[in-house]
Amino acid sequence: xxxxAVPTFLRSRVLLVLAAALLALAPTAPALAAPPGxxxxxxxxxxxxxxxxxxxxxxxxxxxxxxxxxxxxDLSVRSTALGGRTVKVRLLTPDGWNPDDRRRHWxxxxxxHGCCGDYTSWTARTDVAETDGLRDVLVVMPEAGWNGWYSxxxxxGRGGDPAWETFHTVELRHLLERxxxxxxxxxxxxxxxxxxxxxLYAARHPGMFKAAAAYSGSAHPLLNDESVDRIMGFxxxxxxxxxxxxxxxxxxxxxxxxxxxxHLAGRLKSVPVxxxxxxxxTGPLDPPGGTSALEADFNRQNHALAAELKRxxxxxLTTHFYGPGTHGWAYWERELHASLPMLLGALRxxx
Length: 351
Hints:
Rossmann fold; 9 strands; about 15% strand; disordered N terminus
């Protein structure tokens, strides 16, 4: 099947393959730190707006602040976009940061976690807190749900909770820039689900992020039937209704395309983009015999996106398709360091 072909299955087939997809995913899922608990159920009083448009939040507020380590501060944020729930956001603060100084604003790196992780994943699993190059940058690591997919969920046309995209790009961004020293020069990076989120946010919100990096990201979930089945398996991973996120891949194809970085490539052609991925075979940072069907699928997706970005005339594309390597933190930490010169360089440019 070509990269742009419509999947041949119908809804009944999608639902039948979910159990098999989940079983196939289980051995290769990244070993991330578990969040405090499973995601809460959606509230009954959800928004009624069309899911293709973000809800209009009344706002969000910080209800608690906890200093957890040197330069690390956790904000507890009550979010209208999340139905009034309170979620955590970890800040890695720059040297000299003082949120009471309203005259100083810092360039900002958003780091997005993957599926089955949480806002602590980057500091728990990498050396980001010890990285000297980030001592003059405010690093934002927001909660995005166990399986949130950086999206305002469709919820069968009702919209409403959870609206992760609105929480991040509207509510949280406003809070950070008003009260916590965040400037308007921003870049974004993420792994796996968060890699897709980084690409989506850069594409769907032109001008918000000056560069984007995706490490083993879901770059083209509509690539083929296997890719669709796999992400539907993730959507159902917590025993949830998989159609709540983007709907049915055929009936709600417009929503799916609107959340597929491949189909948003034209919006990324002026944004510096870094794509990296292994091929799913045993690599130098893996235990003997380790393989990952998920990484192999994402490798194909990333190659497709890279080709599409080149086709539409992308001006600043960097790829590192490093061959052998699975879906794991050792690679993502390495790729963060490899992409930092591009990301930090973009923060220093005008425009």
